[in-house]
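User: structure tokens for this one?
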Amino acid sequence: MHHFTEFINTANEKIAEELIDPDAIFYVPGRPEPMRGPDGYLAIIGMMRGGFPDIQWTLEEMVVEEDKVAVRFTMRGTHQGSFFGVPPTSKKIRVQAMNFYRFSAGKIVEEYGQPDLLGLLQQIGAVPTS
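Assistant:
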């Protein structure tokens, strides 16, 4: 997961190929269909970087049980591009995410990602805080 964190912070395609199974499935909140394989995950990162070009993930906690890993990340970045239709505000974000992964043969084959999108949208002023 530490190497995976390096991947999501750099969007390095070589690391994506090393860590992500070609048939991996990634369930993304708000998308009716899952993303697939290394290219799908790179697209998820691209979507985040479109709104927050400097986004970085910090691995805070990890729990491992058999072929599953639960991870809590903190995402930090600056809202410098349109995100969910919200024009750039230059506001800094700090958002928690809980992600659940399944591995097979040393590669990620499935992810359920749950970032705090409400908190993110509140931090960029798209949603009221109270």
